[in-house]
Amino acid sequence: PTLIVRGEHDAFSSQAWCERAADLLPRGSLAVVEGAAHAAQYSHPTRVAGLVRSFLEEVEDGLHEG
């Protein structure tokens, strides 16, 4: 499983590029941080941490269900 995190206003990684990258991965997911630019982990650390935490919980739940 892979989580791609993109800032809504990221000038380096377009929405289309990130969507394509997530689609190419067998278990890829994309999360967009509203109001953030390229380095969302620095400008919105709490939001990014929440996204990562939720993603990891979903992955862990999937492991226990399988």
Roughly how much helix do the residues carry, as a percent range? 40-55%
Principal-axis shape equals: flat
How many helix segments?
A: 3
How does the major sheet shape up? 2 strands, parallel
Number of strands: 2
Strand content: 15-25%
Overall average residue pLDDT: 96
SSE sequence, one letter per element? EHEHH
Tell me what the structure shows:
With 66 residues, the protein is of the alpha+beta class. The chain has helices at residues 15-24, 40-43, 45-65; strands spanning 2-7, 28-33. The protein is flat, with a radius of gyration of 12 Å.
Give me the secondary-structure topology.
Blueprint: E1 2-7, H1 15-24, E2 28-33, H2 40-43, H3 45-65
Parallel strand pairs: 1-2
Q: What attributes characterize this protein structure?
A:
66 residues; alpha+beta; 53% helix
Short description:
The protein is of the alpha+beta class and 66 residues long.
